[in-house]
């Protein structure tokens, strides 16, 4: 008999996803370029309904039609090569699903190319790391809707389940929509992580709190509005000791952040679309400047820090301000990210449903958080909301918390503690709510040196001033 679905790529993600699918009662064919990996999976999980195959042909013919094939291979060239090797063996109507961290433009291209051969192509975001893949990820599929409907029953069973029982998967939109949303998710993840890191920096450097005290603070924060996976793991991280030295493990970890480029893609897309995405972009740059460790160490010997007096205020009160600043800034980040989704949706014709997207982030993925329900609620109130800050809930809460961000940022800047995302959050807020910005000066300059013309506040039309005339 034939298998119901096949998975290509038996590295950690593919293996765990195959095991997840199998555990929901499906028979699964597996294939990996290097045979030994497949053998290892079978040696480890021989009791499961996983059917190993060792040639592409054997793999494809083992599947029931229309075939459902999930690719979990390295993004980029490896994915193209894998598709090319499968293609001669596929029939019209078969469904290829790419679950890798693929750049959305690649997915748009592959969807179009494969459609010409009658093959359906779904590019799907899969978030939640290896644990999520095994137990229930958040899934963001994009591609032909009719094809998605044929895999939806499987995806709904393997996805994470939200508090209200709904699976964390929904059809996102045509071609690259799913991978775009996954990319935006990762960008938002960068922002959330940097905001937490800055909060920690303020607590330790400004308030002189110990790692243990910070762990308790994050545990407390996780009980309220900030309740989320990233706050939860941070509080756990802060309780862990290094085996060798007995020190808090965070104190021995080198402060140079890595990245795989998905945050950068989000910022690049924002620049291409002309959407302001300062917070996520600052968080990408914060990783880059952190990675310049040697240069920073050298600079620290040449450029002095400002003289700082010990913090004299009420510590408990200030910790609460940091919490409010964190929540406020998180809202700015999501407001920017979702505004980007709206513009991308218009640009690429995706018809994204923002409330549904926030919903599938509630469980399974790295940015999972109670807070996401607030976003879904906002789009339920108004589906075409231009910016989350215009929603009643977000407008009220940010008005309430704005003073805390101003206080925290001011104190941090006075003390020389870098707060790139906190300060960017309050600047975005102030820019967005400003009727007047100093762009009139920029327009005058552009007109002055390049005759780029300007518009007037008081009448329609395009104008040029004769800047080189006598005064
Ligand atoms: P890797 O990204 O490390 O990819 C390894 C897999 O790709 C192996 O099966 C490997 O086969 C295959 N592969 C590499 N090059 C080729 C090639 N030229 N032709 C055919 N196959 C090739 O594996 P992961 O499990 O970490 O990730 C799989 C996908 O899921 C990636 O796109 C990743 O970005 C994405 N992802 C990963 C997450 C994670 O937490 N790790 C989270 C969400 C998505 P072989 O054994 O023969 O080398």
UniProtKB/TrEMBL annotation:
Its EC number is 1.1.1.44. The keyword Oxidoreductase applies. Signal peptide: none annotated. PROSITE patterns: 6PGD (PS00461). Homodimer. GO terms for molecular function: NADP binding; phosphogluconate dehydrogenase (decarboxylating) activity. This is 6-phosphogluconate dehydrogenase, decarboxylating. The lineage of its organism: Bacteria, Bacillati, Bacillota, Bacilli, Lactobacillales. Catalyzes the oxidative decarboxylation of 6-phosphogluconate to ribulose 5-phosphate and CO(2), with concomitant reduction of NADP to NADPH. GO terms for biological process: D-gluconate metabolic process; pentose-phosphate shunt. Residues 178-468 form the 6-phosphogluconate dehydrogenase C-terminal domain. The active site is at 182 (proton acceptor), 189 (proton donor).
